[in-house]
Structure formats: C-alpha cells, structure tokens
Design goal:
By secondary structure, this protein is mostly helical. It has 13 helices and two strands, in the order ααββααααααααααα. A hairpin with a 4-residue loop joins β1 and β2.
Length: about 325
C-alpha cells in the first residue's frame, strides 16, 4: 500500500483558489455566450485573486509557528503567506486594469485564465520547501507568462516579446535546474533545510550549484547583467502584463532567493552576499542610466524595474532578519 502524506489544505488554499479560477475561466470560453464572455471571465479571475488574498491572510494569521508540510515540500509560515498576499494584491490591481485593455480578438477568457494561472504558480513557488517544488513552481508561472506575453499574436511586437521571453526564460530555468542538480549531487538532498551543513563550505560542486541557482534567480528578477530581455519583453507585452511582471514576478523571485540563500547556504554567506552586492550595484547603474535614454514609457518601466532590483538586492546582501523585514516592507509599496 502506498503511504500518502497528510495534506494541509490551508497552506495550498491560495494556489488552489487561483487554479480553480483558471479552470472556471477556461470553461467560460466555451460555455458562456460571446457577449458576456469578457465580463464573466474577468469576474472569475477577480474572484480567484480575491480568494487567494483572503486565504493567504488567514494563513498568515494561523502560521505563527513556521514548519514544512506535505512531506516537507512546502513551507507553512508567515513569510510565504505574506508573499502570497503581495502576489494576490498585484494580481487584483492587474485584473482591474486589464478589463479596460482593448483587443482585436476575442481571447478574454484565455487572457484572464493565464493571468490567474501565473499568480497560482508564483504563490506555489514562494511556498516551496525543496528544490523540486521550486522548479515546478518556477515553470508553472513562467509558462503562463510566456503565453500571456504573446497572446495578441496579431501584433508582431507581442510575438517578439513572447519568443524572447521564452528563449531567455528557458535558458535561465535550465541554469537553475542544473544548479539544483549539482547541489543534490553534493549534498544528497533536495530539501532546503537539509542542504545546509551537509558538505564543507568550500566544496566545488556545491559552490557551482549555488552560483547557477543565484544566476537563475537573477534572470527572473531582471537584475543586471541578466536584464537584456526585460526592455523588449515589457515593450511588446500588453501593458497590464508588463506591470504584473514588474511587480509580482520580481517580488517572488527575490523573496524565494532570500529564503533559499538563508536557509540552504548559511555557510556560504560571505560568497553570496558579495555576489548579490555586485548584482545590486550593476542593476542600479544600468537601470538608472538606461532609463535616461528611453522614449517609450514601457521601456522606461523596464529599466525602472531593473533599478528596483538593485535596491531590493541590497536587502539580500544584509543577510539578516532586519534585511528580510526591509525587503518585505519595500515590496508592499513597490
């Protein structure tokens, strides 16, 4: 008989709310009359994000005692719950704005389904407690965003944005998963909490894996010098999608990076803090100077996003509880 782990449904509730909204919105594409489709799919997506925010708030209130759940695959703690609330909040604003976005084709249901799916993947990513679930959450949110960027295929710039994001995103995901494989080879475990202290801090295989994982996170956070895709993708994607990526994607990438570095690699702190400091300085320089030359609002938003990645990485370099609180505080108004 196969022994199945106990399921903590409250921990899964924010992601499940958005997954349910995704399914319901897709069904509305074929079951709802065309004249009502836009409003119904919009309402379903809005309800999904509202449900995710509400369940994340309940999860935050009931998770004072941080621990791993579901066979140690997810964290149930206030850190992950707050990340879910940030994603859901950004998602709610994006859905409200997206309702007024004009489209030459009737793909409203697909648009809102992908938006809900991307949010669910981000929340799952933020709660992940081992490298395998991290990768699953990363791909869940990334694939939804690839399609969302290129959904308006009548616009050449949208196709270009989706294609560039797919190529660079696939490349960064490959780097991340190779880094995870190296870490597993060095430590014999995928569990984030168990990686620390498994091998000497100077182990070459472990350090290679750490460098590749950090590179994967830098790509997703659009930190310089891994930022080259950002202006073109933001310019070509629909405006609400650009805003959603600038807010939610960057938030979860940096929150998860900070969790992984602190939990799994405390013995290598002197290395990853130095690397994060270099990325922060490069992002601040490239983001602010690059924005000065822009004539397109969305490209300027992209360079602003790169610059903000630099400010957020400063909190990562602190490698302290105060730095963590500063990162969370910065993300909410950002």
């Amino acid at each position: 008989m196969i022994k199945t782990p106990a399921i903590d449904w409250l921990a899964l509730a924010p992601s499940l709310a958005l997954l349910a909204a995704t399914i319901a919105t897709l069904l509305s594409a074929v079951l709802v009359p065309e004249r009502l489709r836009k409003n119904v799919s919009w309402a379903l997506c809005l309800a999904g994000y509202a449900g995710a925010f509400a369940t994340a708030a309940v999860l935050f209130d009931r998770s004072a005692d941080a621990h791993a759940v579901i066979a140690n695959s997810l964290f149930r703690d206030r850190y992950g719950a707050l990340a879910a609330m940030v994603v859901a909040g950004v998602g709610l604003l994006t859905v409200l704005v997206y309702h007024g976005e004009h489209s030459s084709t009737d793909r409203f249901a697909e648009r809102f389904a992908l938006l809900a799916s991307a949010g669910g993947g981000m929340i799952f990513f933020a709660q992940s407690a081992n490298l395998l679930t991290l990768f699953l959450g990363l791909e869940w949110m990334s694939i939804s965003l690839y399609v969302l960027c290129a959904l308006e295929r009548e616009r050449p710039e949208a196709i270009e944005a989706g294609f560039k994001y797919l190529i660079v995103g696939g490349f960064s995901s490959a780097i991340f998963v190779f880094g995870a494989a190296f870490v597993y080879g060095a430590t014999g475990t995928l569990n984030l909490a168990q990686i620390a202290g498994k091998v000497p801090s100077g182990d070459l295989l472990l350090l290679t894996g750490l460098a590749m994982i950090l590179t994967g996170f830098a790509f997703k956070a659009s930190a310089a010098p891994f930022h080259a895709w950002t202006p073109d993708v933001y310019q070509g994607a629909p405006t609400p999608v650009s805003g959603f990526m600038a807010g939610a994607t960057k938030a979860v990438a940096l929150l998860v990076a900070l969790r992984v570095l602190n939990v799994s690699f405390p013995d290598q702190e002197h290395l990853w803090t130095a690397a994060a400091a270099v990325l922060a300085v490069a992002s601040l320089v490239v983001g602010n100077l690059g924005a000065l030359a822009q004539r397109d609002l969305k490209r300027m938003l992209a360079y602003s996003s790169i610059s903000h990645a630099g400010f957020l990485l400063l909190a990562v370099t602190a490698a302290s509880s105060l730095g963590t609180r500063a990162l969370l505080y910065y993300l909410i108004p950002y």
